[in-house]
Amino acid sequence: VVDQNPAMQNIHYPRTVEVEEAINGLRVARSTFDITYKSGGSTDPWNTPCTTFPSEAKTAFNAAAAIWESTIQSSVPITISACWADSDTLPYGVLGYSGGSSTLNFNGAPEPNVWYQSALANAFAGADLNPSGADIYITYNSEFNWYTGTDGNTPAGTYDLVSVAAHEIAHGLNFAGMVDYTNGTAEYGLAGYPSIYENFLESIDGTKLTSYTNPSTALGNLVTSNNLWWDGPNANAANGDSRVKIYAPSSWISGSSYSHLDYSTFAGTVNSLMVYAIGSGTSQHNPGPVTKG
């Protein structure tokens, strides 16, 4: 989920040459996105009603997909189902959300008994493991005053759709984990198995998240500790050879906690695309080295 954040407004981050070339179709794609825009009168997988997806919004969404097409590598087309939602059915302040299916123990899986989101699993398998469904489902709130231009010059009072779309696509590429939190108790994974995202997370003292009793209040304390860290060689290298802080505020925020970069650390930096919030008049079209790592 991406929420409003009025404190961070009217910031236009510079775009790299690579992003400029990708959006303008001048960069060689390393992957392919196949986007289906839901028709008016249909619903997304969470039964949110969809309205007609505006043509200018499709242009912005396609630009966001082009950024990732030139960034990630997969021989299997990545399928997205996009919904332009009836805002009356969405919680206040939600710009958009995404989700999808996961699989484990497939041919080519790097680790056994670990869940991988569909697009990532397909990339490792070299085949579409779920041809009957989309890899990523993304829904946007039609109520917001969206900026659908692709130049990153977002006017004050509008929300940059390219930035928000690129953010939600990243979640669908497995920048997200599986944790449920209720009344102080947290549980990770599904059917007792963690997602690949869980395998990189740890406490401030280096205790792996997957070593905690599952479910437990200790795990609940960890994911609301403001001291949750990603420890992986690629992201660490992009972060000055340091672990990456993950957003884990003391009050659990469903859809925002756990599956974003820490806001205080990364907002206002080149890595801001994957913090949980974006303000009006702001654009960030660069995935950022930490996110790519």
List its salient traits.
seven-stranded mixed beta sheet, 16 strands, alpha/beta, 293 residues, three-stranded antiparallel beta sheet
- Alpha-carbon distance between the two ends: 21 Å
Query: What's the gyration radius in Å?
Result: 18 Å
Unreliable parts: 1-6
Q: Beta-sheet strand percentage?
A: 15-25%
Tally of helical segments: 8
Biggest sheet details: 7 strands, mixed
Write up this protein.
Helices cover 21% and strands 19% of the residues. It has helices at residues 17-23, 55-69, 118-125, 161-172, 217-222, 233-238, 263-266, 289-292, and strands spanning 2-4, 33-37, 50-51, 78-85, 94-99, 102-103, 116-117, 136-141, 146-147, 159-160, 179-182, 185-188, 201-202, 228-230, 244-246, 277-278. A hairpin with a 2-residue loop joins strand 11 (179-182) and strand 12. The two termini are 21 Å apart. Residues 1-6 have low confidence and may be disordered.
Per-chain topology:
Layout: E1 2-4, H1 17-23, E2 33-37, E3 50-51, H2 55-69, E4 78-85, E5 94-99, E6 102-103, E7 116-117, H3 118-125, E8 136-141, E9 146-147, E10 159-160, H4 161-172, E11 179-182, E12 185-188, E13 201-202, H5 217-222, E14 228-230, H6 233-238, E15 244-246, H7 263-266, E16 277-278, H8 289-292
Parallel strand pairs: 1-16, 2-4, 4-8, 9-10
Antiparallel strand pairs: 1-5, 3-4, 5-8, 6-7, 11-12, 13-14, 14-15
Helix pairs in contact: 1-2, 2-4
Task: State the gist of this model.
The chain has 293 residues and is an alpha/beta fold. The protein is 21% helix and 19% strand. Strands 1, 2, 3, 4, 5, 8 and 16 form a 7-stranded mixed β-sheet that branches.
